[in-house]
């Protein structure tokens, strides 16, 4: 097994399962991931948890041995394919969380950055060390990292190739939360349950609005926000939320 998919109640669980190679990604694994993401989109899952097998690495990056002997055209095709797979993960209609135990490096961090949220266990290390091989990130790292931490910090991390611990990653906004420990799947389930407590339909719309900020100018983003706000007001959850507020009782959201 290289990347496994199972369903745990309303959640899909993706496991990068190649611990002998620190869960490094090869081309076959990317193809499998692409197929799994398609399956998840067609499913009734309400969230996705992404974890790595073993306790040493979430994912140590791309399989470097695969890079040898390729032509420039093959490298281009590989980069474009990897970007497309991770963009497909990022575009899922439900939220996803990468739970990082151990190292998330290179393509592994790029995979985590394609998720909606990132949670790191104490002791985790993250970075984009491609520069140390005379390379640059090729699966979206140069584009997603600045959107998370800003241009200056992204340049620092990418051009030095240094790894940062969970404390610094949290401080600069590369991860959303640090937890003391525990089973990564359980940690991911708890996090998604918290961010979508009661399953309000507005969670999906809020995510769509915030992600639009990364690709739209301010005027277009404001128009997108207004349209999404209007859609939110038409949901049953919005009616229930307003009625519950006025009645001074807890809302009973149904997720629609």
TrEMBL record:
<dbReference type="GO" id="GO:0006635">
    <property type="term" value="P:fatty acid beta-oxidation"/>
</dbReference>
<dbReference type="Pfam" id="PF00378">
    <property type="entry name" value="ECH_1"/>
</dbReference>
<comment type="similarity">
    <text>Belongs to the enoyl-CoA hydratase/isomerase family.</text>
</comment>
<dbReference type="GO" id="GO:0004300">
    <property type="term" value="F:enoyl-CoA hydratase activity"/>
</dbReference>
<dbReference type="InterPro" id="IPR029045">
    <property type="entry name" value="ClpP/crotonase-like_dom_sf"/>
</dbReference>
<keyword id="KW-0456">Lyase</keyword>
<protein>
    <submittedName>
        <fullName>Enoyl-CoA hydratase</fullName>
        <ecNumber>4.2.1.17</ecNumber>
    </submittedName>
</protein>
<dbReference type="InterPro" id="IPR014748">
    <property type="entry name" value="Enoyl-CoA_hydra_C"/>
</dbReference>
<dbReference type="InterPro" id="IPR001753">
    <property type="entry name" value="Enoyl-CoA_hydra/iso"/>
</dbReference>
């Amino acid at each position: 097994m290289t990347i496994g998919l199972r369903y745990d109640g309303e959640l899909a669980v993706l496991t990068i399962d190649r611990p002998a190679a620190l869960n490094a990604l090869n081309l076959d694994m990317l193809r499998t991931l692409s197929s799994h993401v398609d399956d998840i989109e067609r499913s009734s899952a309400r969230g996705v948890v992404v974890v790595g097998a073993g306790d040493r690495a979430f994912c140590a990056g791309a399989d470097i041995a695969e890079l040898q002997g390729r032509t420039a055209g093959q490298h281009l095709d590989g980069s474009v394919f990897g970007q497309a797979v991770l963009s497909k993960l990022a575009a899922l209609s439900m939220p996803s969380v990468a739970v990082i135990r151990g190292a998330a490096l290179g393509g592994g961090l790029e995979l985590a950055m394609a998720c909606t949220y990132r949670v790191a266990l104490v002791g985790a290390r993250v970075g984009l060390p491609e520069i140390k091989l005379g390379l640059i990130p090729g699966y979206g790292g140069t584009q997603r990292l600045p959107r998370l931490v800003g241009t200056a910090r992204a340049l620092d991390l990418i051009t030095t190739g240094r790894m940062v611990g969970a404390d610094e990653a949290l401080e600069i906004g590369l991860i959303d939360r640090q937890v003391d420990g525990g089973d990564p799947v359980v940690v991911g389930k708890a996090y998604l349950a918290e961010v979508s407590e009661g399953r309000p339909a507005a969670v999906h719309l809020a995510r769509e609005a915030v992600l639009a900020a990364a690709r739209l100018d301010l005027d277009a983003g404001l128009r997108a926000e207004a349209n999404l706000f209007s859609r939110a007001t038409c949901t049953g959850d919005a009616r229930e939320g307003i009625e519950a507020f006025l009645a001074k009782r807890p809302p009973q959201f149904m997720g629609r």
